Known about the structure:
The protein is α/β, with parallel strands linked by helices and 510 residues long. The protein has helices at 3-8, 40-59, 89-96, 100-114, 136-156, 218-222, 237-240, 243-247, 258-270, 340-349, 373-383, 397-409, 419-431, 469-474, 500-509, and strands at 170-175, 184-188, 193-196, 227-231, 254-256, 280-282, 289-291, 294-301, 308-315, 318-322, 353-355, 388-391, 413-417, 441-442, 455-459, 488-491.
Amino acid sequence: MNDKNEEKVVTNQSKNNKRRRFRPKNKPKQEGETTEQTSLASKSVIDNFFAAEQAENEAHGEPKSQNPRPKKQRNNKNQNKNGENNKPKEQKQQKEKPKQEPKAEAKNETKEQKEKPKKAKKPKKNLPAKLNGNEQWQQDIASAMEANKATHELRLEPLKYLNSSEHKIRITPLGGLGEIGGNMTVFETETSAIIIDIGMSFPSESMHGVDILIPDFDYVRKIKDKIKGVIITHAHEDHIGAVPYFYKEFKFPIYATPLPLGMINNKFEEHGLKQERSLFRSVEKRKPYLIGDFEVEWIHITHSIIDASALAITTKAGTIIHTGDFKIDHTPIDGYPTDLGRLAYYGERGVLCLLSDSTNSYKEGFTKSESSVGKTFDAIFSKAKGRVIMSTFSSNIHRVYQAIEWGLKYNRKVCVIGRSMERNLYTAMELGYIKLDKKIFIDANEVGKFKDDEVLIVTTGSQGETMSALYRMATDEHKYIKIKPTDQIIISSKAIPGNENSVSTVLNFL
């Protein structure tokens, strides 16, 4: 290689950059002579130039130059006459090595850095057998899961399963809605019908010569061929008072629990309807009975009379709950509270319609338990110096029973006055709802034989009925009992709406 060529080999094989010549042309090198013409500053500029170029190429992913600019030597001891470097062979071999190997290694290192190291496999846990499969026990589990899901859906949205679009039911109230008394309701489908309660109501003062009011039976006459039976909820007069007048014309089976049937029996005897007792159908609570197109179940509830019931009436259209008359009493005298569990059962199944008692619903608070009356009786009997005369509904057996119990505690004989009171109390004793010794009772004509502080009189007339025993006592018309100033008189009932004036009249007479 001649001096000219050697002088010009200062270019790099870069794509876009051309090399400038730094050696002056007018100063030729002499053979074997070392030139120190390039200043230290120029040398620094050149070295920085090539270093920057190499870094730029690497940044663009280009390989390093095959012939990088060799470093200048300051002396010529290791240079031969042809300008060749006389360095040891080891250095020469290092120069002859290809420059791509380090680049390849760098690329491999970059890939390894990008690739995340694989995590070591965790040892397998001792998991149980799979629950999904074709074995019988696995299929049983899957079936149970589906059934439980359907149960939850039915529980949360029971109404969507009712079929009231295809099957219809008509409810026709003949009395008792928007009024106190005269309760009577007809339930009917296309092929059958039932009647719920047949009660009486009290006349107003303007109805002279009228003792009681009964529902209009004209609609019953129109559908009498469809009627399959009469259903009774409880034995209050506003629910059974018109039964004997109804059965003088119609002959349908009558379904009820024992106490209502017993009190209806008393009415049939009074009205000469003893033969109609063959239509009695005694029922058990929590047991459904199929009556025409209706499945009827009696549910125990607490009320101011023993053996009261609500009704669950199941039809193809859905279930109807008829509460009858009720109050939620958690501490009743007989120890049998309302069967809330059974009501909840039908609530979960889904209720198409609720027919509820609403008496006193406009008043805030709640009705006190029947057992709370006992404390009042105790306070009265303990202070009474003369006779105690207590008036209440003849059907309120538990109220009568409590008065008698406290009278016995203070060594008083008991006189029951009023035909309905006598009959109802005797019926409750005969059926075993209350237990009293018959020896504690005296007749009205025997009251005068005992001291005043030894007598308790239990009578009817709490609603101011003009024919009641209390009314006759107040007007001094009773044959045996005359009111004395020392008598302690208790009216243990509220006035039924509409009876306020008659009750006030009795109080004024007293």
